Model the fold of this input.
Amino acid sequence: MLDSFGRSIHYLRVSVTDRCNLRCAYCMPEDGIPFVPHERIISLEQIALVVRAATGLGFNKIRLTGGEPLVRRGIVDLVAMLGEIPGIVTLAMTTNGTLLAPLAADLKRRGLSSVNVSLDTLDPSRYAALTRGGKVNDAIAGVRAARTAGLPVKLNIVIGENDDLADLATVSSFAADEGCSVQTIRRYRLDEVKFDDERYERPSPCAICDRIRLLAIGELKPCLHGDASVPVDWNDIEKSIRACVGLKPACGSRASAHLVSAIGG
Ligand code: SF4
Done:
């Protein structure tokens, strides 16, 4: 469907949880965050209802995000449910990969079409520091299991303004060895005004924005860098999606209402 600026909005990013097994420094405060109570998190069936309504309006790309989507109980069943919905061309996931190895084959078999794995460094101590305790070998095992399962894998590397690019070089050669692609993401803060920077592949320029987001609390977000959101009306989901698309700004400003970990980037 088109938004009020004539952009084709056909990509729905679905944050299935605000929880994560890691504490990445640029995403979560050291002590973590007060997680949303379970009773406020929408069910897998409700997520499938929103996705089905969205495909009815021409959405054809769905990405499952978090927090960390693989900590959500029943995530493989959700992929199976979504895999049956007609009209989805891409059913993708963004994960930190540390829980992926035992699940990759099942996710592929049930309908997942591709996976992005966040991998900012291959250095075990820097990875542990950045993720506050993560093991890089778990993420590497996840990447390899996804490749073995036949899933296209893109490695997301978040780069800060003053970061040296040594990690980008090592992650890029690892990607080449493993048959993966690499996507550079400029480190950003939601409470800063969004600006486009062609040196990085992401965040993408607002002029070609194609997405909205579904939060795990059952709200639709027109823009990452904005506080607007539309609670899903379960009696008329299409109306909620249209209202969300109608609220899309020409370009992002800044946001304070939700943390990145609850939006899924
Ligand atoms: S900041 Fe908002 S308008 Fe810009 S690309 Fe992101 S979601 Fe789209």
